[in-house]
Design brief:
Oligomer: single chain
Radius of gyration: 15 Å
Number of domains: 1
Shape: globular
Mean pLDDT: 93
Distance between the termini: 48 Å
Number of strands: 5
Length: about 160
């Protein structure tokens, strides 16, 4: 039987419950899921090291042995190929996300031989990195938005 590795790429700035929902569902579908934390200066994201650390801490308590967290720079398709990922996982919160992901999936297919699998967010479609950063800035308790293991670290990092 063929091993199917999947890449779940993003900036994860910060890693939140919507991300957790998608990665846990992907981990049930694929043999290995790599949460690829993109080095992305265009979004003014925090350092990739801090975002990797937060994602790894959030995922550490899940008991899922087939999830890895790694930083990468450059094209997600190159990182996927380097890690033998046949699938790129994307999360969809709304119809606007679906339209964006449709175009992105065509680009992925043109650049590499990967399939794009989109997973609908069911519980946390209202959660986004920008909302969490704003809430942290004004001192709102982040419970219900980010995994509890990283709640205090996220609040401190983004205040």
């Amino acid at each position: 039987m063929k091993t199917i590795n999947a890449l779940y790429p993003g900036t994860f700035d910060p890693f939140h419950l919507g991300h957790l929902e998608v990665v846990l569902r992907a981990a049930r579908l694929f043999d290995k899921v790599i949460v690829g934390v993109a080095e992305d200066s265009s979004k003014n994201a925090r350092s990739s090291e801090s975002r990797v650390r937060l994602a790894a801490a959030a995922l550490g308590g899940t008991g899922m042995k087939n999830i890895a967290v790694e930083a990468f720079s450059g094209a997600a398709t190159d990182f996927a190929a380097k890690n033998n990922c046949l699938v790129v996982v994307r999360g969809i919160r709304s119809i606007l996300d679906a339209e964006y992901e449709k175009g992105l999936s065509k680009i992925y297919r043109q650049l590499a031989a990967v399939e794009v699998v989109c997973l609908m967010c069911h519980e946390y479609e209202h959660v986004s990195g920008s909302v969490i950063r704003q809430l942290a800035k004004i001192g709102v308790d982040l419970a219900g938005f980010v995994p509890l293991q990283i709640k205090d670290a996220v609040a401190e990092l983004y205040k």
